[in-house]
Write a structure and sequence with these properties.
The chain has helices spanning 69-83, 95-106, 131-137, 142-153, 156-159, 176-187, 217-224, 240-243, 245-269; strands at residues 3-5, 11-17, 22-26, 48-52, 88-93, 111-117, 202-207, 229-233. An 8-stranded mixed beta sheet has the order 1-2-4-3-5-6-7-8, sandwiched between helices. 46% of the residues are buried. 37% of the residues lie in helices and 16% in strands. The termini are far apart. It has 270 residues and is of the alpha/beta class.
Amino acid sequence: MPYARTPDGVRIAYQLRGTGAPLVLLAGQANSHRWWDGVRDDFHGARSTLTLDYRGTGGSDEATDPVGTRDFAGDVIAVLDELGIERADVYGTSMGGRVAQWVAALHPERVRALVLGCTSPGGRYGVERGGDVLRSLAHPDPAKARRALLETMYTPEWLATRSGPFHTLGDPAMSALARRRHLTASRRHDAWDALPGIRSPTLVLHGGDDVLNPTANAPLLAGRVPGARLEVIPGARHAYFEEFRAVAGPLVLDFLDQAAGVRHQAFTAT
């Protein structure tokens, strides 16, 4: 497995597949690159895809210190540097969307176009999930807690026809410490003040029935990032990108193609 090494010496496992312009896919909290297993091939043919395992997940080293979403963004840059990729499209979902916000805000020269999926600006303006959702996810019976998480990810109709595996439920090999650190990183995310500085063409994408990361966060992000486009998929829950892949995948690819056209026109015009 190939690795990039961060400035603080952590090995980050990454996975590059396909050919074409690179699309970085960033997974949700406490998940490895396998979060994207169900849909990754949808982007091949038009793009190559680059994923990574966050610190504490997959093949990457365990995080030895507390981490934040800014740290994960730095790990993305380390992987791009390792591969010699100067600029890429970046698509982050859930906590990956939080990480993507920092990649675009702190390293604008590295991000050609940005997609923020089922995510939040965090901080004082982010809309938190309701108490009923929190209680269901913290149920003392692990089977009931798992079922509650599944039902925030997918509709009952979709779940009725599938038995798994469900790679969006977390990396089962993670240590308890790594899980806590991921949870803390996600909870402490606050990019509100940085969002107006994002200059990449941006698409904000969300499921209309998302209660895990409430849909109300989508217009907040779209209103905060200059020129951002907002798309809400009716009836979709948190894992809209998988269950509604026939809608979400083409939306993302069309947006990236349009963004490339805009950038090309702007370049040739000058």
